[in-house]
């Protein structure tokens, strides 16, 4: 006797599932999905599984032994074209035979106690054995990269050709055809070497020389004639003063940099600060200083020019040029600073030092951009601005300043500001458009017309108290009227829009207070025996209608019997007669939570009943179910997203 898989909680024959019985399919196969594992041992020590990409034989305790219990069992790993990877050490108790033509050992250390034996190209009784002596420290022997090189032993004699000797030590002497011992250097060779004796003899044989006159310590020599030099006492150099030019003549000395080339460029004075390390912000590239005597004949620095690194960032370098002058006690302070910006094409300029500094411009100051004054600005002439003036956070445009021009207090003028006179009055005002008007005292008006008045596009308020308007009236509070309220449109109260037709229905209705209270949510009830002719009010696609209880009972009859091959369950209970054919029942997705369907097989049980979903809902995680036996049934209950088997 066979049983329905549902009876054993099996969703799909032949496939293992969580918390289900295990079965085989109609081919006798057992399918284990990716990630599911067969585990053996008390601690699940041995596991067999496939993760969707690779297959695994995992052992966590003891050794993993293959064919070790019986002698003579051959073990084959991989196909003839497979690559076998050993993840860690490999120990071979017997011999290791590699039948391939290439053996690659990707390691840095090979341990051998008896050396490495090479058979050679002929398999005979003669071999070459490579043995490494027991070293006293780590040694490296590099085989050169050459197609035809030969290793030479220490005892062998070898001629070196095209070899480079780094720091060689030559004892006793050198000889050969490239060593010349010629006192007169007659060979004049670019590739041969001269001996020490021949070099000395050649130098001693040379006559003539240069004479130097007038030289003292640190003087710089200049050429005064043929083979003659003179030391210049007024041009000296030492580590303390550097290069120094002195003169006792007025307006001297003069340093001239002259360029005589017929071109547009000339020479320049170059300062270089190459510190031998990474540059930093505020490094000084060069300085020009100006010294003079004060009235005590103290030599004082009165001015200085510095070239400075403002930003040393690579690719974003900025420089600064600073002009210093002595102030107060001879201290040099920056009075003019030009600093490059990280914004391309921008150089910032600072003039003066301290808030008390005064910058005087005797002529015209023309600013093409925006001017900002953080202190006081004193202008004796005219200030002209193209666009606006900003004081603190307030910006005044040219148009706004224009409305103040030629204003008369107490008189309103077109396109001008309004200024109250001494009595706080304004005359000659035309139409005033405004929002709310608030009066702290008594205000008297005749008729008020707003927006063209009633009958046009606005509102009229008469002195008799009648309000007439062409638009809507909106009130945040109560509206009280001593007379009638007439509206051409509708009344909107909260979110309810009540029009004339709807009010006419209420106007002719005969509704009691008790009936209105029931509609309003009254929870009181009385016992009533329903009859077939009684009515129930339902919403029929937006229209309220009365439905007989007899019709409602017919609708609630939730049993259907089907014989078709495919149906969609529309009743609570679907009876599938499979005498003539199999039946597929589709369950509709996204039903409200609590929706219940029962599907049962009737007839003679000749065919199966398949239950499937219309889209995405599942049945206890499965996409379909099958009834195999007569009178077998399943009940499904929706949780709003999926169905559960009850």
Characterization of the model:
- There is one protein chain.
- The chain is mainly beta.
- Among the domains are: 1-30, no CATH class; 32-62, no CATH class; 214-256, no CATH class; 284-351, no CATH class; 551-645, Jelly Rolls, CATH 2.60.120.
- Helices cover 6% and strands 27% of the residues.
- The protein has five helices and 34 strands.
- The chain has helices at 196-205, 398-402, 500-507, 513-519, 549-555; strands at residues 37-40, 46-50, 55-59, 116-118, 128-130, 179-180, 193-194, 211-213, 219-225, 228-238, 242-245, 284-293, 299-311, 318-327, 331-340, 347-351, 388-391, 394-397, 448-450, 459-461, 467-469, 491-493, 496-498, 535-540, 543-548, 559-562, 566-568, 573-577, 583-587, 596-602, 609-613, 624-627, 633-638, 643-645.
- The strands form eleven sheets. It has a five-stranded antiparallel sheet, with no helix packed on it. A five-stranded mixed sheet has the order 26-28-30-33-34, with no helix packed on it. Strands 8, 9, 10 and 11 form a four-stranded mixed sheet that branches.
- A hairpin with a 4-residue loop joins strand 33 and strand 34 (643-645).
- The chain is flat, with a radius of gyration of 56 Å.
- The model has no long low-confidence stretch (mean pLDDT 82).
